[in-house]
Amino acid sequence: MTMTRTPGAEVPTTAAELLARAKELAPLLRRRSAEIEEARRLPADVVDVLRDAGVFRMAFGPELGGPALTTMEQTELVETLAHGDASAAWCVVMGASGGIFSAFLDETVAKEIFPTPDTIMAGLLQPTGHAERVPGGFRLSGRWSFGSGITHCDWVTSGAFVYEDGKPYASPDGSNPHESKQFLVPRAQVEVIDNWHTMGMRGTGSCDYTMTDVFVPEEHTYSFGRVRGRPGPLAQPDAFTRSMCGVALGVARAALDHAREIALTRVDRMTGVAWKDHFRTQVTLAECEADLLATRGGVYGSQRRQWEVLAAGGTLDDLTPEERAASPIAWVHAFRTSRSIVSRLFDLLQTWSIHQSSPMDRWMRDTTTMCQHATAQDRILQSAGAYLLGAKPEFGICLGIVK
User: Fold this and answer.
1) Termini Cα distance of the chain
2) Residues 129 and 90 in one domain
3) What does pTM read for this prediction?
4) CA-based angle 375:242:366, to the nearest 5?
5) By the 8 A CB rule, do 130 and 184 touch?
6) Domain hosting residue 104, numbered range
7) Which of 231, 298, 299, 305 lies most in the core, judged by the most C-beta atoms within 10 Å?
8) 101 with 132, same domain?
9) Angle, helix 245-263 to helix 321-349, in steps of 10 degrees
């Protein structure tokens, strides 16, 4: 089955229009889920339709032709797409991150790299590469993992430590004994290693990739400690991580909807009691709904408070410690609670879950896999807990701390 493009159709320009388009796409993505998983990447026509729908432009500001959706609107959009297919939604989050990163570039450079807000980004931010300083820029080499969307992106951003004459390069201001930066490279200069064979999230194409001695101009590098473009709520070091948990929330919602649909049509073969009249079914569904309700409330509540302060011209430092820690705590909880919801519903549906033809099989594997991502790990909780105690966060960027 091929998803049909509509040549010449207007791209949505508002949050409401983008969300409406995502709702139209979700059932189409659901029907393509098995194919997406088997391909281990998004098929080209799926990428084209997503791009045409404008979902990759959600974080770009008006200076680059984008709608600058709020964090809450981005998360809702991602949730909606994940109700159709988790891998597609994950690729949209990653692909749309260029809108966040553009704030850390000079505007003229951003317009060169992102000539259209539908430009797709991929890459790994962790500084695992080697960047040797040379006149006018750097020579970048290395191997990076988890390049979600690397098979269909336009630009790749990669973290690397900086060296000069083969020795670690210290920041001139003395703030960092070994400086690291982000490097933007056209996709054509990257070699993809086809090694994405996983239990879940198979359709994200999150392959390793390599570069060898690729020249990167100085102006195509950035650091999260310096905003060069338009300031605002999205021009923050933590902004690219905020909406990722929308994938988990969307899958949990899809699993709950599926379980209710099954419960309304099944009868217990041993007792003749309709599933909808069974105590266990009723309690499990209610408990899972309660968990999703509370988890979404935590995610969106923390996002709204953060956005309120930043949109008023404040900084993350203007949040109370509890308010600042709330966002990363909430997104970790969202990933893990969504996995728990899917697991309990998997058990509730029993043998209706175990066949590969059941979406529960994929949702179980997808939520288990996405919970292994860095944004769902204990280091996020450690960072939030350390911040609340006045200690050193291990992964400060989740709190918007880069020094």
Assistant:
1) 49
2) no
3) 0.95
4) 50
5) no
6) 15-113
7) 299
8) no
9) 30
